[in-house]
Amino acid sequence: MRISFVADYRSPIACQWIDRVAGAGHDVHVVSSRRSGDGPVGYPVTFEPLGPLAVAEMWLRVDPAQDDGQSSRTSRAPTTALTASLMQMAFRHFGPVSLHQHVRRLDEKLRQSRPDVIHAMRLPFEAMAVASTSLHARIPFLASIWGNDLTLHAESSSVLGRATRKTLRRVDALHTDCQRDQRLAAAWGFDERRPVLVIPGSGGVRTEAFCPAGPNLRTELGIPSDAKVLLNPRGIREYLDIPAFFDAIAPVLAARADAHVICTGMRGNLQAETHAGAITSRDRIHLLPALAFDQMPDLYRSADVSVSLSKHDGTPNTLLESMASGCFPVVAPVESVLEWITHEVNGLVVSASDPTAISSTLLRALDDIQLRERARSMNVSRIATDASLDACMGRALDFYELVAQPNSPGA
Q1: Do 171 and 237 fall within a single domain?
Q2: Mean pLDDT to the nearest integer, 110-129
Q3: 329-341 pLDDT tens trace
Q4: What's the mean pLDDT in 228-253?
Q5: Is residue 213 a part of any domain in this protein?
Q6: Which pLDDT band, with edges at 50, 70 and 90, does 36 fall under?
Q7: How far apart are CA 399 and CA 387, in angstroms?
Q8: Which segments within 177-308 are labelled E, that is strand?
């Protein structure tokens, strides 16, 4: 089968999915919406800037601090708050308009690949661009919803809202990383009679890498082997309450002299550096740059507790990876996250904006060894059963066969 992907090819989770499809013997072609520096990968990858962030990156050589659920975990150049704010405004109010000059070239590239299925791996702006081509009406068109496409972006402006509704009415099949987004997609215009798939946005967790046994980074970070370690793997995101997080860890560090905190994607960020610098126990806060994807398993194994306190989310890949690695999850009560975590069973749930409650919850997570051990066993087992890369991508490959059938619903 020939499958054309329209995706942000900088993203390691998009690459993992595409690589697995290509490895299964399918003829793969990729149109990347953002410029990627990767070399030859065994299948053609071309570039077409889709959305204002891609255009700005191309012309201004900036890499805006825009998170869309599939951002690369490699280091980025720093971005000022003003630049990030302007890019967010452009993303929300002018994004769909910016597609017009690129739709024709996207259409030509897709025609040249002669696909049996087109898979756009995000709503803004990959699926929106495909929905504007002439091919979407003749070739089965699958779209993925990742992260905050519906709960944050679609609601952020009338322009993005209209484009979201138009796109979901045109897609022939839908992949989401949580059950919640299947329900929301129907409210935004998706025909529920059409094929649907619910698996992680990355295609699943590489459980041979993300597992409790293996090396960790404690020695490299100067953290004692017997320390209690909290990990925030989320970095800086618009939908994370960074001040509340740092306000919460200050009393944790004061109460537990053996506690350390690791934060990825925060080194050099003015907001994170300022908040961390105001904490007395700054020497036990380890602000790291964004790490390469293959460093993440060792990072999870360095921690006892993983903290994900978001206001919007799909199913975070960091959550699934931490669960597979035996790291105890503390999460906010986001509907999609609660599809995986049950309070006081396999994790703890706390408000993302209440520092006092977060502190108490984190201290309990560190102190309750029995809860952590029970959760570890449950979480490792569940990821192996419900979210492993092999199992999930097997379902995805079957899904492509279904979508490609001329008599499938919506095809």
Answers
A1: no
A2: 96
A3: 999 999 999 999 9
A4: 95
A5: no
A6: confident
A7: 16
A8: 196-198, 228-232, 259-263, 285-287, 305-308
